[in-house]
């Protein structure tokens, strides 16, 4: 298996895991479950997100793709940053149910748009 294929498999696996772990933690949050306090729940999502970003950087270097020259790529990076911030807000800071659901909606929309842009290689904003 060449390095590009390996990085791509890692990237896609990390994408699936980050979404699954976010949904699981949001489900536990809504139920007020003590499962959120487990040690692995505090560690594994950070490891997965680190693999997601490291594999993304590896793909950019291997292909190679300069994000500044490809609007779909820098816009995807902005969406991922927004996803990380809203994810943190929803899981750690949001107080009311409305702000939790609003943050959850924004986080999911960011992921959906990032995924769509990755496949289509089309920017969202034509700047
Ligand atoms: C900083 C964050 C990210 C960067 C810089 C990044 C960058 C990249 C790059 C360079 C590729 C390879 C494109 C190719 O093979 O031609 C790729 C593939 C892909 N990425 Fe990301 N990615 C990031 C995060 C994400 C996230 C959060 C998602 C999902 C929501 C995602 C979904 C995908 C998918 C589905 C592909 C495969 C596209 C295809 O082969 O058609 N990426 N990404």
Word description of this protein:
The chain has 127 residues and is mainly α. It has one domain (3-120). 79% of the residues lie in helices and 0% in strands. It contains four helices and no strands. The chain has helices at 3-31, 39-62, 71-93, 97-120. Helix 1 packs antiparallel against helix 2 (39-62) and helix 3 packs antiparallel against helix 4. The longest helix is centred in the first third of the chain and has 29 residues, at 3-31. Bound molecules: protoporphyrin IX containing FE. Protoporphyrin IX containing FE (HEM) binds next to helix 1, helix 2, helix 3 and helix 4.
Ordered list of secondary-structure elements with their pairings:
Layout: H1 3-31, H2 39-62, H3 71-93, H4 97-120
Helix pairs in contact: 1-2, 3-4
The structure holds protoporphyrin IX containing FE.
Protoporphyrin IX containing FE is lined by residues 8, 11, 15, 52-53, 56, 59-60, 63, 65, 76-77, 80, 111, 114-115, 118-119.
At a glance:
The chain has 127 residues and is mostly helical. The chain is built from 4 helices and no strands.
Percent of residues in helices: over 70%
Order of helices and strands: HHHH
- The N- and C-terminal alpha carbons lie at a distance of 37 Å
User: Helical stretch count?
Assistant: 4
How many separate domains make up the residues? 1
Quote the beta fraction.
under 5%
Note the main sheet: none
Ligands in the model, by name, code or SMILES, are: protoporphyrin IX containing FE
- How many individual β-strands? 0
Mean pLDDT: 96
Shape: globular
Q: Low-confidence spans: pLDDT under 50, at least 5 residues? A: none
Radius of gyration: 16 Å
Structural class: mainly alpha
């Amino acid at each position: 298996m060449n390095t590009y294929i390996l990085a791509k498999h890692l990237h896609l696996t990390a994408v699936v895991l980050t979404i699954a772990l976010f949904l699981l933690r949001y489900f536990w949050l809504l139920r007020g479950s003590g499962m959120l306090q487990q040690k692995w729940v505090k560690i594994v999502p950070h490891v997965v997100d680190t693999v997601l970003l490291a594999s993304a950087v590896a793909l950019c270097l291997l292909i190679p793709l300069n994000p500044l020259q490809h609007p779909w790529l820098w816009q995807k990076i902005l969406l991922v940053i927004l996803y990380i911030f809203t994810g943190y807000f929803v899981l750690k800071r949001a107080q009311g149910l409305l702000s939790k659901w609003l943050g959850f909606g924004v986080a999911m929309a960011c992921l959906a748009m990032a995924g769509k842009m990755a496949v289509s290689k089309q920017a969202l904003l034509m700047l």
